[in-house]
Amino acid sequence: MFGDMMGMMGKLKETQQKVEATKKRLDTVTLEEKSNDGFVAVTITANREIKKIAIDDSLLQDKEQLEDYLILTLNKAIQNATRVNETELGAVAKEGMPNIPGMDSLFK
Amino acid sequence: MFGDMMGMMGKLKETQQKVEATKKRLDTVTLEEKSNDGFVAVTITANREIKKIAIDDSLLQDKEQLEDYLILTLNKAIQNATRVNETELGAVAKEGMPNIPGMDSLFK
């Protein structure tokens, strides 16, 4: 039992390190999202940091439309980034977890 | 041992339900972030969904400045939302975890 506990703690420590390494790696993974007509383009990392926003000149004529376009495109970008983030980190965390039925669903 | 396992599974199921309930509740928690001069204001939920972007007319004259303001203010808003999200969900998950030293750090 004591040996089990030590093994489990060692595995958790290893998992923590893998989680940290994965988080760092996700800073370098970028995703692009555009509005349907391409008038707004957003570049975001898999850690949900916005790197670039490109707005077409035509949108500067109508502020409300611009704001709406930004909200839609940014939310799609954030959702995509979150999906990649959770998939990558979830895989690492699941791998390192003690095998208790139902536990993996906590990482979705 | 069998009893322990059943108790652990029951607790995990309960935790999953609490996590789901917390996620739902975080949809109703909104945070506001503004640029220093207040020319860009962003409203975001604790689940990182942007609800509102308000741009001052003056920023429409300079697209590059507008894009820079948006990136800065949005990233601050997303970071704040993430902090609230992780604090709230982390507290629920930690409470429901079997007590293994080091495990809680996986939820940070």
UniProtKB/TrEMBL annotation, chains A, B:
GO terms for cellular component: bacterial nucleoid; cytoplasm. Its main location: cytoplasm. Pfam families: YbaB_DNA_bd. InterPro entries: YbaB-like_sf (IPR036894), YbaB/EbfC (IPR004401). Signal peptide: none annotated. GO terms for molecular function: DNA binding. Keywords: Cytoplasm, DNA-binding. It comes from the Bacteria. It is found in: Cytoplasm, Nucleoid. SUPFAM superfamilies: YbaB-like. Binds to DNA and alters its conformation. May be involved in regulation of gene expression, nucleoid organization and DNA protection. Belongs to the YbaB/EbfC family. Homodimer. This is Nucleoid-associated protein SAMN04488010_3027.
